[in-house]
Amino acid sequence: xxxxxxxxxxxPRASLSRVSKSLVRMCTSSASQNKNVVVRAxxxxxxxxxxxxxxxxxxxxxxxxxxxxxxxxxxxxxxxAKQGDLGWIRPGEMLPEFDAVIFSDEVIxxxxxxxxxxxxxxxxxxxxxxxxxxxxxxxxxxxxxxxxAAGDMMMxxxxxxxxxxxxxxxxxxxxxxxQWEVEVAGLDGFLILPMSQYEEWAPxxxxxxxxxxxxxxxxMCHHGMRSAQMAAxxxxxxxxxxxxxxxxxxxxxxxxSQFTKRY
Length: 263
Known about the structure:
- With 263 residues, this protein is an alpha/beta fold.
- It folds into two domains: 31-148, Roll (Chitinase A, domain 3); 151-255, Oxidized Rhodanese, domain 1 (3-Layer(aba) Sandwich).
- It contains eleven helices and nine strands.
- A five-stranded parallel beta sheet has the order 5-9-8-6-7.
- β8 (217-220), α10 and β9 form a beta-alpha-beta unit.
- α6 (155-162) crosses α11.
- The two termini are 23 Å apart.
């Protein structure tokens, strides 16, 4: 199973090893309209409504205070470790009630162009702060950025683009299969990042040393299941345009006239 760490507020997800609870809040109706985006959010978790209101007043006056308040006051592990940052969140990773808040039109419509985060020094007028009460306590929540979620690439499109060298160069190609699988049936141009060796390559990937976060990225495995998980992970850590290759290399072998290796 993957070893990457998620904040303690995320909804359990069967495909990942880190399971925990999620935020809960009153449901609004507009979140379903924004299921094709991911958002980046941060929060401050405190014990009382009075303390939450005091924090809210401070960040509304001076947004730059958010990180320090999260670091010194928040009960969530994300406070001390990441100044309250929960990272990129996809629809469904939180419970529906909280999804309805962070993916609501009210919040998303106030953010800059998709993919452009609000700089920490930006005035509070450019941000949207929310108060939420949950079983964990009281939260001051801010959504800081929004972008298109990871999607799928169908095989017909991949065959056409991959077999055209000029089109292939426009894509960042990542193969998450095991090394033995690549040796049996491998494709040129792919960066090999075996899913089972996540802990070995994650630091270099997350630092941006070996990848381009902004280049269109296609993730491949044998049939498209492992790559779907990893595409979600890449999206969460900040890749702006990630696509999972549906059907994987096995489907490519069936569709392509240039490659026929199957296993």
